[in-house]
Amino acid sequence: MTSTTLQQTVSLIAPMSGIVVPLEQVPDPVFAGKMVGDGIAIDPTSQVLLAPCDGTVSTLHPAHHAVSLTTASGAEVLMHIGLDTVMLKGEGFTPRVSQGEQVKAGQPLIEFDADQVAQQARSLLTMVLITNHDDFSNISLAAGKVVANQDVIIQAGSEAQADEATTQPQSQTTAESELITLPNPVGLHARPSANLVALAKQFSSKVTISCNGKSASARSVVAIMGLNTKQGDQVQLSATGADAAHAIEAISQAIKEGLGEDCQASPAAPAETLPEEQSLLAIKHDDDNCLLGVSASPGSAIGVVTQLQEQTFDYPETAADSDAEIRALSAAIDAVQQDLTELQQHMTQQGQADKAEIFQAHQELLADPELIEQGETFIHRGKSAAFAFNQAIKAQIGVLKQLDNPMLAGRVSDLDDIRNRMLRKLLGLADEAMALPDHAIIIARDLTPSMTANLDADKVVGFATTEGGSSSHSAILARGMGIPAVAGIDNRAQQLANGSKVILDGDAGHLRINVTDDEISAIEQRQAKQAEQDKQDLAAAHDHATTTDGHQLEVVANIAKLADAEKSVELGGEGVGLLRSEFLFLDRATAPSEDEQAEQYGAIVKALKGRPIIIRTLDVGGDKPLDYMPMPAEENPFLGERGIRIGLNRPSILRTQVRAILRAAQGSDSTVRIMFPMIATLEELSAAKQVVKEEAEQLGVSNYEVGIMVEVPSTAVMAEQFAQEADFFSIGTNDLTQYTLAMDRGHPKLAAQVDGLNPAVLKLIEMTVQGAHKAGKWVGVCGGLASDPQAVPLLIGLGVDELSVSVPALPAIKGQIRELSLSQCQALAQQALSAGTATAVRQLSPGR
Amino acid sequence: MISQLGGRDNIVTVMACATNRLRFTLQQKEQLAIQQLTELACVNAVMEPQSKVVHLLLNEDASPWASELNQQLSN
């Protein structure tokens, strides 16, 4: 430093009361090593951070634990309350100023709850630092006890930066990094920023870091923190100077490695950073001819492999005339928007609202100003429009892929689709034409919505994609087209030769390859046999379901609306075993009135022409709330206020519904049965039954019964006691299985193990039947097991009296029962009860 | 130290937090002898962030202190 420099001073008063701790003793290497700046730490005994001098609030960290001021003399003063307090995300901190605000010495900046923060953070030590301390000399620091707004803690003299001006200009080069995705869980806060600055200072080049449209000098901790970065943000470095390229390389590498932060172990890091592991329970397949995936749309199909190749594009990276490229980009965007509008209209006209919606979404994605702005930025840097757009959209795809959010990850294929459209437009290529063979089974990485819109639906019999899941576009479209689809299929599928014969099993989620003609004819024979069987069952649909040894079962239907009731009668249904009353309550702004409900139930009872009906009272929960009945978010909705618990806690809803059901029974030939869902304790049943009793007496109705769903293990175990109160039982096997195994049946990783044929569930069914029969009550099954041909013999063998099945399955289940003998079913059920696993049970009972 | 906090009966809980802080919750704050607490060699400063909550700022890790105090209080 030379003596010609201009002296300025800065003097800071204590921003809080407490004990001064020398920076070197702060248990954090970044502060102790003075990497952020020079100053002191205070162990506070007050709970407000005051401005230590006049100045402007240059940054206020979003987590409100750090603030910096710029003084008139150019000093940058950073105050950082506590260590690792950024993790508290603002909890316990209340800012009293905002960024850009002018403040006077002594003015409150941040209030904090010292007790709360102390219990959650590693330390309350508050650092008061001059971050551009290189520009200051003779820094003197206080020690001991200080009192807020009274004692001077730091004094320093400032020198104008003479050294830089005297440096001889060397050969200037510029360099720029790629976009780097920040791995740091809370972005570039004090610690990683300090490491970045320390590294940047090792180079003579001027390095700038930019993010979210803002840029900052890589030598200023405060400026970097002011970028307000967060995890997954993309930053770019640019450098000017003799060692620009080296600087970019070294700093890029350091950012990718987390700037000294352990980004892997952080709880905030998305789970995606962990490598996928194969579960120990995964079903192992040693059949090389069977490629595994997950079911995305049910059904099975025989067809020929049709590989959908992704279009590749060839374009120059740079362009000379930026203005022309900007115009080309803008024209292409307009043209693609036009195409998308037309496609949307076309789909709407064809009645394909779901596809129309997708193209509507594409228009919005393409209109994203950030995307366009990013593209233009690249063009201004001398890139071609195609390269620029590709880069810009790639950045967005990168961000989406980072997020641990399956909904947004599904958007990747939308962006891919837009990218391809734009590039074709920019490069003047025609839309991909697809000539498909008959019985095509499409194999692709993922199907973009445009691909599926262009597919000839008459020729495609199935999809298999290596990416995507059961919620991807291809899955939704396949289900809409009624064809099977498998997602996440083994990558080997992409190596299959076009035209080779394969069998796609959308139920099991696999693709059989190298199939022989014999196998195909065997399957075709089986399908033909199945069709013949269906015909016979349908013809006999109105016959009783009586076993070969003369035991008759009641086979009834699960329905959700009037049309189902009519259809069930047509298909031989002997009544309704479950009317899900939710249809009356969902998708509306107000609760249905008693009159409206009575009318609807009455119409369904009438359609059954004297056949019995079980009407289940409203069965909703916190996971599927009704618009007009807001329910607080629950930590465990499946263990929360759902089923009868809602009716008991809001008796007006239950009472209204009970009255409406009883009114539907008035003057009808049918026995109308009221069934309460999710009963777990006798108190619940008694309370709900009391409501029915009161209303029935008032209305003078007697052709009714009161029963319960058996969905909770407690009810199955105590069936004998429940049988004293309930007229009948109906087992909801789906929920009973989920509550018995403590596995969410919608959980993607557990669903495969949630099998109602688990011997534990069968045992609970047996207990229910025994308890009910002792009191002379009957038991039905209305869950998924009743329609499962492998389960039917076991349920009969366990003594179940009634099966309530999905309407289309009525003829087949009745047909199956006629082929069974009760005594054989009983023997089989005993074997199943002593089996070890659901798989073993399924082997015992292979179905029809 | 216990007596200056109003005796064993006045101390509801003791814990260590923020590395060097001994945090006490008290039955009532009136019995607190702040001046005498500050004079203890191990205590740098005393803070009352809330009524009935006291932090003693130590010049070392507070965890051993907390476990020792908890032991004494439970005996």
> What percentage of amino acids of chain A are in beta strands?
15-25%
Q: Say what the CATH topology of the largest domain in chain A is.
A: TIM Barrel
Strands of the widest sheet of chain A, in order across it, are: 9-5-6-7-11-3-2-13
Residue ranges of chain A: pLDDT <50 for 5 or more in a row? 1-6, 159-170, 265-273
The count of domains of chain A is 5
Outline of chain A? globular
Q: Which CATH top level class of the largest domain in chain A fits?
A: Alpha Beta
N- and C-termini, Cα separation of chain B: 16 Å
Number of helices of chain B: 2
Strand neighbour order, sheet with most strands of chain B: 1-2-4-3
Report how far apart the termini of chain A are: 94 Å
CATH class of chain B: Alpha Beta
Q: Give a short account of the largest sheet of chain B.
A: 4 strands, antiparallel
Count of structural domains of chain B: 1
Number of E-state strands of chain A: 36
Q: Strand-residue fraction of chain B?
A: 35-45%
DSSP summary: helix tally of chain A: 28
Protein name (chain B): PTS transporter subunit EIIB
GO molecular function, one term (chain B): kinase activity
Active site (chain B): 17 (phosphocysteine intermediate)
Pfam families (chain B): PTS_EIIB
Structure description:
The complex is a heterodimer of chains A (848) and B (75). Chain A is α/β, with parallel strands linked by helices and 848 residues long. Chain A folds into five domains: 7-164, Glucose Permease (Domain IIA); 168-256, Histidine-containing Protein, Chain: A, CATH 3.30.1340; 290-311 and 434-515, Phosphohistidine domain (Glucose Oxidase, domain 1, 3-Layer(bba) Sandwich); 322-427, PtsI, HPr-binding domain (Enzyme I, Chain A, domain 2), CATH 1.10.274.10; 536-844, Alpha-Beta Barrel (TIM Barrel), CATH 3.20.20.60. In chain A, 36% of the residues lie in helices and 21% in strands. Chain A is built from 28 helices and 36 strands. In chain A, the strands form six sheets. An eight-stranded antiparallel β-sheet of chain A has the order 9-5-6-7-11-3-2-13. An eight-stranded mixed β-sheet of chain A has the order 20-27-26-22-23-24-25-21. An eight-stranded parallel barrel of chain A has the order 29-30-31-32-33-34-35-36, surrounded by five helices. In chain A, α25 links the parallel β35 (778-781) and β36 (802-806). In chain A, α7 (322-349) packs antiparallel against α8 and α17 (594-607) packs parallel to α19 (651-665). In chain B, β1 (11-17) and β2 (21-26) form a beta hairpin. The mean pLDDT of chain B is 85. Chain B has one domain (3-61): Gyrase A, domain 2, CATH 3.30.1360.60. The radius of gyration of chain B is 11 Å and the shape is globular. A four-stranded antiparallel β-sheet of chain B has the order 1-2-4-3. Chain B has 75 residues and is of the alpha+beta class.
